[in-house]
Amino acid sequence: MKPGRSWRSGLLGLVLSGLAMVPAQADEDVSAWLDRMSRAVDSLNYRGTLVHMRNGHVDTLRIIHRADENGIRERIYSMDGQPREILREGNQVRTLLEGNQPLIVEGRIGARLLPHLPVSQLSSPILAYRMDFAGTERVAGMNTRVIEIRPRDQFRYGHRFWLEEKTGMLLRSALLDHAGRHLQKLTFVDIELGVPISDSELAPAIEVRDAPEATMDEHSVPPPAAASELRQASWTPARLPDGFRLASVGSGVSAEGRPFEHLLFSDGLTSFSVYVEEAGGGQASERIDAIGPVHVYTGMVEQNRVTVVGEVPPATVALIAQQLQRRDKSGSDR
């Protein structure tokens, strides 16, 4: 995979949630609101226009989401810049990119533009975050409750969520550095909730011809199975920052035709991905690149190209790369 495209990394990065303690009752209330948000993002019908602000750059996106007895369908497309669309049907995601380097990415991919936060499945979130209510504000003409989530260590960023009071729908999210400064913001400038969505609205408007295609076979890992799944992976970090667990595992073929393994780790709010790809005789110098709040490590481990990417501080991708090791066929670390 090539995670260096800024908008794609941004999508990878715009996901997930967390918990904390500030007192216990407040914790329970905030957790309930996060659960409402997760349910609303998935179960409501809505269409709206989103503005994504990051690193001095502004993208405008349109999102159309339908949930019914046949499952979830979603279409996200750019309204400026090069045409690009993301089509979701259930767990299947198809990404279409036009331009000088057209590309199709298809498979069971865990990245979402809006977060899906199954609070009951979060692993030890209280170790990683403090959270509390931070007042009320109006967003896109609707009243919202504001939730602020602050990290307890240097391995993750803070977050602020604006949730519509009646439904819990996420109307605005902000990613915060350790000084509380905004690293990026995603906000609805208009949104219709609970509206009928037709099939034609969910059909792609662009057609990518003769484009290379990357595929991924991915499945989510529930918390009780995470440890055993990680032991079965070919590669694994010897150490993870507190609170992170394996959220999904996958494999696929890159646009260049090389197989890769993918591990997605999450603490419930923050996530990062590890890609290990056969180098095919090539080499990659060790480096960390920043695309706004997204940090990307690239390097080589045992003649394999390794990429660690996520909306996390550089210390996180560096730590994971340093700790990555191959497992032998018996499942033990080398």
Automatic annotation (TrEMBL):
GO molecular function: antisigma factor binding
InterPro entries per the UniProt record, alphabetical: MucB/RseB_C, MucB/RseB_C_sf, MucB/RseB_N, MucB_RseB
Domain MucB/RseB C-terminal: start-end pairs: 231-324
One Pfam family, short name: MucB_RseB_C
Keyword vocabulary terms for this entry: Periplasm, Signal
Oxidoreductase keyword on record: no
Domain MucB/RseB N-terminal: 30-205
Compartment list: Periplasm
Example of a GO biological process term: regulation of polysaccharide biosynthetic process
Entry keyword Metal-binding: no
CDD domains: RseB
Top-level division of the source organism's lineage: Bacteria
Family designation: Belongs to the RseB family.
Protein name: Transcriptional regulator
Organism: Wenzhouxiangella limi
Record lineage: Bacteria, Pseudomonadati, Pseudomonadota, Gammaproteobacteria, Chromatiales
